[in-house]
Write a structure and sequence with these properties.
The chain has 148 residues and is an alpha+beta fold. It has one domain (35-142). 42% of the residues lie in helices and 19% in strands. It is built from 3 helices and 6 strands. A 4-stranded antiparallel β-sheet has the order 3-4-5-6, with helices on one face. Strands 1-2 form a two-stranded antiparallel sheet. A hairpin with a 2-residue loop joins strand 3 (108-113) and strand 4. The chain is elongated. The termini are far apart.
């Protein structure tokens, strides 16, 4: 009566480990830059939120029909300061107004200089940013994986 042993030889196990090592070495670089991609996507999301806030506040201001109104009360009761008149800044949230309209800027540092507010991720480089200008509601995004 002969007994047959079943199992893997040492060489087979080494070959499997080497193949897994090669697969891990080729897949790892794809996942290394995920943090920068996530920060860039977060900044793009913030820019979208800013655009939405500007348009909602401006629409609310236009509906009132009063171009001299310096504030707009949103549906949730938030008072947002806006530019007045019929020019490019009419109904566009001011720097303070856009911060009120957003509600929360958690996760972002804000720096205000005159009529411009710049948002950067709290744990990210200064080059990764979204800038809002209240004279015309312009939003400039500087957020790619290369800078974030």
């Amino acid at each position: 009566m002969s007994k047959h042993q079943r199992g893997f030889t040492l060489i087979e196990l080494i070959v499997v480990i080497v193949i897994l090592g090669i697969l891990a070495a080729t897949a790892l670089p794809r996942f290394v830059n995920l943090q920068a991609d996530a920060k860039a996507a977060s900044m793009q999301g913030l820019a979208g939120g800013l655009r939405g806030a500007v348009e909602l506040v401006r629409a609310r201001w236009l509906v009132t029909g009063n171009t001299a109104a310096a504030t707009v009360t949103t549906a949730d009761g938030t008072v947002v300061a806006v530019g007045t008149g019929s020019g490019a800044s009419g109904g566009v949230p001011t720097v303070v107004g856009i911060l009120n309209a957003l509600g929360s800027t958690a996760g972002y540092a804000t720096a205000t200089a005159g009529n411009v507010v710049t948002f950067t991720p709290t744990a990210g480089p200064a080059g990764c940013s979204v800038t809002y200008t209240d004279t015309n509601g312009a939003i400039v995004v500087n957020a790619t994986a290369a800078v974030c």
